[in-house]
Design brief:
- With 277 residues, the protein is of the alpha/beta class.
- The chain has nine helices and eleven strands.
- The strands form three sheets. Strands 3, 4, 5, 6, 9, 10 and 11 form a seven-stranded mixed β-sheet that branches. A two-stranded antiparallel sheet has the order 1-2.
- Helix 1 crosses helix 2.
- The longest helix has 27 residues.
- It starts with 5 loop residues before the first helix and ends with a helix.
- 30% of the residues are buried.
Length: 277
């Protein structure tokens, strides 16, 4: 019987999430070579390749896709077991603000899990766009927020970094003569990225729909009403990511999510760790 190492599994999940060894190394604060070595050890232990690798992309093999669900389950059980005693004794009140495009399709599940793992913490949650959350935080209405990184605003901690994607209801190898966009209202980093990328490539576009929330954007894209730009956390079933490059859709950048804490303490740190995991 072969025993799995939680550290190796954590590296595997990080590479799968980031779709790169570089991204995983930043997330886990380890060197890229250390991440690569751990993935190789895990593949040797399991006797199969978990990733297809080339100079530009890292993606799961069929075996990797099958193993991912087990890996996520093992990490969840490990972290819950390790943190159970310390977290269940935490008691207090916390007001959380979380940007709405962070896994919107799984947020109720996430919130339920947090309340189970922090049973004595009175948690209230505000879901909105970054600007609204920052305003509420500055006004003293929220204790902890997870938002898009803002230039020239310090005192934050990195939460995660994500790639931006063009998304549609079906595969489109390149833009049409007129791109129909489904967008969130300004100010919005996704909106800015989409418009700037199309303008820089001289690709005509029109704003077909302006939606108040990410769930609305997701729904309209699935119905084939247009394309949009979303981050990895906002991707779910029914959304197709489109190729980026010189002969495809304009190249987009990445976003960085950060956390702000009004008065860092054991409760806020436990909450951020749960959200990150």
């Amino acid at each position: 019987m072969r025993d799995l190492n939680i550290d190796l599994i954590r590296c595997f999940v990080a590479v799968s999430d980031a779709q790169s060894f570089t991204g995983a190394s930043k997330r886990l604060c380890r060197s890229q070579s250390a991440i690569s070595t751990r993935i190789q050890r895990l593949e040797m232990l399991l006797g199969t390749e978990l990733f297809f690798r080339n100079s530009r992309h890292v993606r799961l093999t069929a075996a990797g896709e099958q193993f991912l669900n087990y890996a996520l389950g093992l990490l969840r059980l490990n972290d819950e077991a390790v943190g159970m005693l310390s977290r269940t004794n935490l008691e207090g009140r916390l007001r959380l603000g979380i940007v709405e495009y962070l896994i919107p399709h799984r947020f109720p599940e996430l919130l339920t899990r947090i309340r189970l793992l922090l049973p004595r913490v009175e948690l209230s949650v505000k879901v909105a766009l970054s600007e609204a959350l920052l305003h509420a935080f500055d006004s003293g209405e929220l204790d902890v927020i997870v938002v898009m990184e803002q230039e020239a605003r310090g005192s934050s901690q990195i939460f995660r970094e994500e790639k931006l994607h063009w998304v549609a209801s079906q595969f489109l190898d390149s833009p049409s003569s007129m791109v129909h966009l489904c967008l969130l209202p300004a100010p919005c980093a996704f909106r800015t990225a989409a418009i700037a990328a199309l303008n820089s490539s001289a690709i005509p576009w029109r704003e077909t729909l302006t939606l108040s929330g990410v769930v609305g954007v997701q729904g309209c894209i699935k119905e084939g009403l247009g394309v949009s730009v979303l981050c990895e956390s906002a991707l779910n079933e029914g959304l197709v990511t489109l190729p980026q490059g010189s002969a495809a859709w304009p190249v987009l950048g990445r976003i960085r999510l950060v956390t702000y804490e009004r008065s860092p303490n054991a409760i806020s740190r436990a909450l951020i760790d749960l959200l990150r995991d």
